[in-house]
Design brief:
Shape: globular
Radius of gyration: 17 Å
Helix content: 40-55%
Family: Belongs to the beta-class carbonic anhydrase family.
Protein name: Carbonic anhydrase
Strand order of the largest sheet: 2-1-3-4-5
Structural class: alpha/beta
Number of strands: 5
Mean pLDDT: 92
CATH superfamily: Carbonic anhydrase
Number of domains: 1
Strand content: 5-15%
Distance between the termini: 20 Å
CATH topology: Beta-carbonic Anhydrase, Chain A
CATH architecture: 3-Layer(aba) Sandwich
Order of helices and strands: HHEHEHEHHHHEE
Largest sheet: 5 strands, mixed
Low-confidence stretches: 19-25
Bound molecules: zinc ion
InterPro entries: Carbonic_anhydrase, Carbonic_anhydrase_sf
Organism: Niastella koreensis
Length: about 190
């Protein structure tokens, strides 16, 4: 499954590398809708940022029905995110969770600035992200983005015994990733970031 995501991202990058050539998409959304209409069997769950440039279904070349996708600014873990992950793991037998940050993340940059505390929920969200700050990190703060992914992965394992048990029993992979908004490439924690 991880290999399929890697291959999908390679397809995605290759597709737009042909400048000014519109290659045929391998997607057939109609078929995907017909196939998934009665039930869904996604192969992985991706937690990533709300950033408009980071749509997992597109950047992994997966289309409709193949990925559970959770998106929240700064790809943090909270109770509702974790509940959704537990649904994916316990009810839908998902065996791969990807936590994916990205370059030039606004939530990460905000952690290095001042957020108006009158926007209470935003203030608390950025406070959550601030835990990941790498000292002396410089714009675009990609070292902090990576650390934030690692902390979210730790949070998931720490707060969900369901996920932790399957992870410890090697029934579940939990991997970190960083998406580059400038070139479309995903790099992988412990492999190539
Ligand atoms: Zn972001």
């Amino acid at each position: 499954m991880l290999a399929k995501l890697k291959a999908g991202n390679a397809n995605f990058v290759a597709r737009f590398s042909f400048v000014n050539v519109h290659s045929d998409s391998s997607y057939n959304y109609y078929d995907q809708i017909i196939r998934s209409g009665k039930d869904q069997h996604p192969m992985a769950c991706v937690l990533t940022c709300m950033d408009s440039r980071v749509p997992p279904e597109i950047i992994f070349d997966e289309g409709i029905g193949n990925l559970f996708v959770l998106r929240v600014a700064g790809n943090i873990q909270d109770d509702d995110i974790l509940g959704s992950i537990e649904y994916a793991v316990a009810e839908k037998n998902i065996k791969l969770i990807v936590v994916m940050g990205h370059t030039n993340c606004g939530a990460i940059a905000a952690a290095f600035g001042n957020v108006d505390s009158s926007a209470k929920e935003l203030y608390e969200l950025i406070a959550h992200v601030k835990r990941a700050k790498v000292p002396n990190d410089q714009p675009p703060y990609n070292a902090t983005a990576k650390n934030n992914v690692a902390l979210t992965m730790e949070d998931i394992l720490q707060h969900s015994s369901t996920v932790k048990k399957k992870y410890d029993d090697k029934e579940l992979m939990l991997v970190g990733a960083l998406y580059n908004v400038s070139n479309g490439k995903v790099s992988w924690k412990d492999l190539d970031w």
